[in-house]
């Protein structure tokens, strides 16, 4: 798989996740389960890496996986505790799991193309 196609898949999946969760949390706010303001706060961490994900910055793809873990916990908790929103919870969990595989893979592959990486410690000669 080329880096560009992996980038397109990850970016599309991320945007789909943002739209899915935005719709979910707005619906929950409108139904009155919690206030709309509280539910909109749930979306903020997901929006933090938006610019870097759209631009294809490998560093952003590397650290965005940590944020996705929060939402994976949300999805897996919903799978366990709900019957009404089971389909939504499964879709959310599968989409996030795919992104948790794709994001680091893209970051590594694109980082190597750009020559990015950790510098090796030089050996000192005494």
UniProtKB/TrEMBL annotation:
Chain ranges passing through the membrane: 12-30, 36-54, 61-80, 86-107
InterPro entries assigned to the protein according to its UniProt record, in alphabetical order: DUF2069_membrane (IPR018643)
Keyword Transferase: no
Keywords of this entry: Membrane, Transmembrane, Transmembrane helix
Pfam families linked: DUF2069
Keyword Transmembrane helix attached: yes
Record protein name field: DUF2069 domain-containing protein
Lineage start: Bacteria, Pseudomonadati, Pseudomonadota, Gammaproteobacteria, Alteromonadales
């Amino acid at each position: 798989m080329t880096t560009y196609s992996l980038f397109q898949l990850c970016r599309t999946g991320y945007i789909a996740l943002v739209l899915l969760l935005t719709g979910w949390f707005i619906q929950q706010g409108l139904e009155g389960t919690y206030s709309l303001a509280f539910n909109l706060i749930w979306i903020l961490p997901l929006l933090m890496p938006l610019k870097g994900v759209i631009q294809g910055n490998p560093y952003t793809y590397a650290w965005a996986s940590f944020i996705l873990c929060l939402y994976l916990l949300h999805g897996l908790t919903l799978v366990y505790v709900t019957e009404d929103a089971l389909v939504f919870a499964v879709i959310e969990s599968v989409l996030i799991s795919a992104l948790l595989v794709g994001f680091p893979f893209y970051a590594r592959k694109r980082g190597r193309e750009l020559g990015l990486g950790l510098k090796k410690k030089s050996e000192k000669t005494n």
